[in-house]
TrEMBL record:
Keywords in alphabetical order: Cytoplasm, Hydrolase, Nucleotide metabolism
InterPro entries found in the cross-reference section: ITPase-like_fam, Maf-like
Active-site residues, as the UniProt record annotates them: D88
Organism: Paraburkholderia sprentiae WSM5005
Name assigned to this protein: dTTP/UTP pyrophosphatase
EC number annotated for this UniProt entry: 3.6.1.9
């Protein structure tokens, strides 16, 4: 059964401050409005790891928790009822979760751990539809191989400030591309929003694009 244009939603709320996710949605031609955390919300608490938690379980749990928090934000703020898109990305190696570095030294520590090795980048997606129902979530799994990078190069990269605010202390679309020998998986997923899975979820949520 086909959907009439009247049944489609004109935009989606994006519950993310990431400019990369915004750029990727624009690449798909998706209209969106930002639905960002309020100052009183404790985002760090949502991202806290549980003891013994595996990275895939972690990233999906955090993504779903952020989706529910965004839905509460929408209802409390009196916003128009539209679907909400949430994504969460993490980097994992040796069963450890590498989050966002706290400073340049922390970034160097993470990058040193990745140098000369292969790691996974996990991006979980969640959509809550306009009626408040959580749609089946998606998980993008990609592997990235770093070259054996000299320590001086890692320190220069960390000093550039680019690693800050990025899981695993690097951005695939930035200067760190010179370290990457091979990628298997979704380039957009490594950036933070796998476009294939995103498009499928947004169509399921009846977004018009």
């Amino acid at each position: 059964m086909s959907m009439s244009s009247a049944s489609l939603h004109p935009f989606v709320y994006l519950a993310s401050q990431s400019p990369r996710r915004q750029e990727l949605l624009q690449q798909l031609g998706v209209r969106f409005e930002l639905l960002l955390p309020r100052p009183d919300e404790d985002a760090e608490a949502l991202e806290a790891e549980l003891p013994g938690e595996h990275a895939r379980d972690y990233v999906q749990r955090v993504c779903i928790a952020k989706a529910h928090a965004a839905r509460a934000r929408l209802v409390d703020g009196g916003h128009a009822a539209r679907p909400i898109l949430v994504a969460d990305t993490t980097v994992t190696i040796d069963d450890a979760i590498l989050g966002k570095p706290i400073d340049a030294d922390d970034a160097v520590t993470m990058l040193t751990r990745l140098a000369g090795r292969t790691h996974e980048v996990l991006t979980a997606l969640a959509v809550i539809d306009a009626d408040g129902a959580l749609l089946p979530a998606a998980l993008s799994v990609s592997t990235v191989r770093f070259a054996a990078v000299h320590a001086d190069a890692l320190r220069r990269y960390a000093a550039s400030g680019e690693p800050l605010g990025k899981a695993g202390a690097y951005g695939v679309q930035g200067r760190a591309a010179e370290f990457i020998e091979r990628i298997d998986g979704s380039y957009s997923g490594i950036m933070g929003l796998p476009l294939f899975e995103t498009a499928a979820l947004l169509r399921a949520a009846r977004i018009d694009f």
